[in-house]
Amino acid sequence: MIKILHVLSDTNIGGAGRYLFNLLSSQDSNRFEAVVACPGGGELERQLKAKDIKVYTLEGGESSANLSQIKSLRQIISWEKVDIVHTHASFAGRIAGKISGCKVVMTRHGLGGSGGGFLKRTTTRLVSRIFTDRIIAISRAVKISLIESGVPADMITIIYNGIDLSQFDRIEGSLRKELGIAPNTPIIGMVARLVPEKGYEYAINAFYHVLKVYPSAQLVIVGDGPLEKSLKNLCTQLGIDDHVVFMGYRQNVESIIADFDVFVLSSVSEGLGLALLEAMALGKPAVATATGGIPEVIKHNVNGFLVPSGSDNYLAESIIKAISDKELAKALGTEARKTVNEKFSSKTMIEKTNKVYMEILQRV
Predict the structure, then answer these.
(1) The Glycosyl transferase family domain covers which part of the protein (predicted)?
(2) Closest CA relative to residue 51, chosen from 81, 88, 26, 14
(3) Alpha-carbon torsion, ordered 326, 261, 163, 132, to 10 deg
(4) Which residues lie closer than 8 Å to 326 by C-beta, 6 or more apart?
(5) Given Cys at both, which of 28, 76, 116, 192 links 198, Cβ 3.0 to 4.6 Å?
């Protein structure tokens, strides 16, 4: 049995948390045993425990590296007899793992900063070599970003996020009933944290233009985050409050997405987009920005609409097209689900991740 400690520095149940659920829920329990260390008090900790996954609480908030966390992690590694430390944006986990003699894997879920001067790139290269055995990038775009920041290319393996398509079969929509939205009212939906990199202001401005063509349309936003107040203020300024619903964080988004007519991802920076894959698995036509790893998922007019990042006009144009041309929307949705099945399955993600684990364990 191979013991793996997953370390997260974030309390939010965002992309990294959902990635971890998908990984652990289908991983071979006869070969691998997983425990998790993360800051306490958040939705992430609660959901992990609900899945009967052993969770250790890290003190020190969401800091990615501090001495107390390193000490705590070393104790956990010793108690649990850990073989591999798999970190998700936790430098403390990488340090603790290497000091304790473990193999260390890091998954980079976002683009992060890239480039930098010679000294910064050299430092990143050395730190990567010393404290990490392998780095998993969730897209080619993330790999390029890592290389530009100084990470050696031979340390990086691309493993796309994957989802279990069977979990998206026969999902009944609950949103229209919950919000009292009529069957013929177009619903444009978004699922993402309310943070700057998601480009929500462009989507809201685009929706303002959509309402001129479809006056009854509704924009449903699922997620929480620091921009909630400012985004609500933007809706007020545009006079569209009555047409925009902020639903906050929701645990099971499948039944909500199932009632979307169009899924929108307006990011200005995106590693890949797990919610995008979920919408595609439900056969929804998606309008997404051509940034980061998104073009590795969406092919324009084949399985969705790909638009320039930072343009509310292009977003609005594609949303209107998706609503008005129902035959095209259905065809795009069918191709979207096919794309997920062929390229972004949880089975493939888990097999490739397990291969990384076995390769680094065999390395002297």
Answers:
(1) 175-338
(2) 26
(3) 110
(4) none
(5) 192
Q: Are 287 and 315 in contact (CB under 8 A)?
A: yes
What string of pLDDT tens digits covers the 364 residues of the chain?
999 999 988 766 667 888 888 888 778 888 999 999 988 777 778 878 888 889 998 876 555 567 888 999 999 999 999 999 999 877 889 999 999 999 999 999 888 655 556 565 666 667 777 889 999 999 999 999 999 888 889 999 999 999 988 889 888 899 999 999 999 999 999 999 999 999 999 999 999 999 999 999 999 999 999 999 999 999 999 999 999 999 999 888 999 999 999 999 999 999 999 999 999 999 999 999 999 999 999 999 999 999 999 999 999 999 999 999 999 999 999 999 999 999 999 999 999 999 999 999 987 6
Helix or strand (DSSP H, E) at 136: strand 134-137
In angstroms, how far is the first alpha carbon of the chain from the final one? 19
Spatial separation of the C-alpha atoms in residues 104 and 86, rounded to whole Å: 6
Is the distance from CB of 162 to CB of 26 less than 8 angstroms? no
pTM > 0.70: yes or no: yes
How far apart are the C-alpha atoms of 179 and 171, rounded to whole Å?
Answer: 18
Angle of helix 91-99 relative to helix 67-80, nearest 10 degrees, comes to 50
Name 279's Cβ contacts closer than 8 Å, sequence gap at least 6. Answer: 189, 191, 257, 260, 263, 286, 336
Residues 322, 330: Cα–Cα separation, whole Å: 9
